[in-house]
Design goal:
The protein is an all-alpha fold and 220 residues long. The protein has two domains: 1-53; 60-218, no CATH class. 77% of the residues lie in helices and 0% in strands. The chain has eight helices and no strands. It has helices at residues 3-52, 60-87, 98-103, 111-120, 129-144, 151-169, 175-193, 198-218.
Length: 220
């Protein structure tokens, strides 16, 4: 074989080898591009899932505010009952059941107190159906972190609170409390059906029903 023949064979081999190497390199690049593309897609899907998943957290600020407000209102009611008892020559202590006194009409309510109580239970009053039910709903949303899936649990808690209030009141609660129960449940159901701890909710509801009933009794 001549030198030219050897050179031609060598050149052809080199060309084939170079072509094969380039093909392998291109294949590796394509594989890497595909891997990167798949990874990017995976990251995108994960990011999309994270965005869609909403995290619900308790609104402790609202819970603390509503509890403090409820405690303040309860203390004001106790002070008012104590003041009226003192006028009647009676004493108010830890064993005094102010709800029983009001329910049974054993407490003389002065005209000024009665007039204020009537304002408080009016449609736009603090102890009216709308405001009282709205506070219950606000408390429920704060407890659940605004999670509508917890609405049924909150509804059950409100019902339990109504039952507890009925026992503490010592008899059937007045009509305004029943209307408030219906209003609160209706608002919670609307919240549950829109895209818009049980014991704590029960206590909050119970206190609202009892104090509302007491204020209504003074308004009579």
């Amino acid at each position: 074989m001549s030198v030219n023949g050897i050179n031609n064979v060598t050149q052809n081999y080199d060309n084939k080898s170079t072509s094969k190497t380039k093909a392998n390199q291109n294949k590796q690049v394509d594989n890497k591009k595909q891997e990167v593309s798949e990874d990017a897609a995976a990251v995108y899907v994960k990011s999309e899932q994270i965005i869609e998943k909403k995290i619900y957290q308790r609104d402790t600020a609202t819970i603390d505010r509503l509890r403090a407000e409820a405690d303040s209102r309860l203390q004001n009611l106790r002070d008012l009952v104590e003041k009226m008892l003192l006028k009647q020559g009676q004493k108010f202590n830890d064993t005094t059941d102010m709800y029983q006194l009001l329910r049974e009409g054993k407490l003389e309510v002065d005209p000024a107190t009665s007039a204020q109580a009537q304002k408080d239970i009016a449609e736009d009053g603090y102890w009216g159906v709308n405001q009282t039910s709205e506070r219950m709903v606000s408390f429920a949303k704060a407890l659940s972190g605004g999670d509508p899936s917890k609405a049924n649990e909150m509804i059950d808690a409100v019902k339990k609170g109504f039952e507890e209030a009925t026992k503490a009141w010592g008899g059937e609660l007045p009509e305004i409390s029943k209307k408030t129960l219906d209003a609160a449940i209706g608002k919670l159901e609307s919240w549950r059906d829109s895209t818009d701890n049980g014991s704590s909710m029960s206590n909050a509801a119970a206190n609202s029903f009892k104090n509302q009933a007491a204020t209504g009794k003074m308004a009579e």
